[in-house]
Design goal:
By secondary structure, the chain is an alpha/beta fold. It is built from 5 helices and 9 strands.
């Protein structure tokens, strides 16, 4: 590889990391203040907030015009942290998470340490361990789970790309992450599995 090409690639990479950190810092400021963000996830663009802040979660329900009885997904950066938000974590959960290379959301029974309006009426909670760089770094720096719900008004189809997000959503959140940080190449939704305390599970969405 020519030296000039190497340094050019290095500069581009460093510039990308600098931009990512700048966006993470901006998101952290908003999240800590109880605000909402529009950000790229490991599936599609989502609207998020502090999953332990009831007032922030209410903002998302209001923005999406979503019925509060419908629970939300939360994102974590590391499987080891699930025990902080679920009373009992069946052993099979670790195997399920480690055995897939595509986004996987697992519904666990008996949630804890989360805002009550994130948790379903049956006390379950849907959690996804993200693997893309931006989300992982953001959640790790924040130190708490972040809500993830599709960036659309309830009843409307989820936007497949940033340019498909409605102005109502764009103007309704407190911060919009730079679209250039979106590294999603294949639009996809996560597989959803419901996991019971006894270790049995059923597929909700393939």
């Amino acid at each position: 590889m020519p030296i000039s090409w190497y340094f050019c690639s290095l500069f581009i990479h460093q510039n990308f990391l600098f931009r990512m950190q700048s966006e993470i810092d901006a998101c952290l400021k908003v999240l800590k203040a109880g605000g909402t963000i529009l950000y790229p996830t490991d599936t599609i663009w989502g609207v998020g907030c502090d999953a332990t802040n009831a007032a922030a979660v209410d903002k998302i329900y209001h923005l999406k015009k979503r019925i509060e009885g419908k629970s939300l997904i939360i994102l974590l950066d590391d499987f080891k942290r699930i025990g902080d938000y679920v009373v009992d974590v069946p052993e099979v959960a670790a195997d399920l998470v480690s055995s897939v290379d595509t986004p996987l959301t697992i519904i666990y029974s008996k949630a804890k340490n989360l805002s009550t309006n994130v948790i379903a009426k049956d006390q379950s909670i849907a959690i996804r361990i993200v693997r893309n760089a931006f989300c992982c770094r953001l959640i790790r720096a924040f130190g708490k789970p972040i809500v993830s719900t599709s960036a659309n008004i309830s009843g409307e189809p989820p936007p497949q790309t940033f340019k498909n997000i409605s102005r109502q959503i764009l103007e309704g959140v407190d911060y919009v992450v730079d679209p250039l940080l979106d590294d999603i190449r294949t639009i996809k939704t996560s597989r959803i599995i419901r996991l019971e305390a006894n270790g049995e599970f059923r597929i909700i969405r393939k």
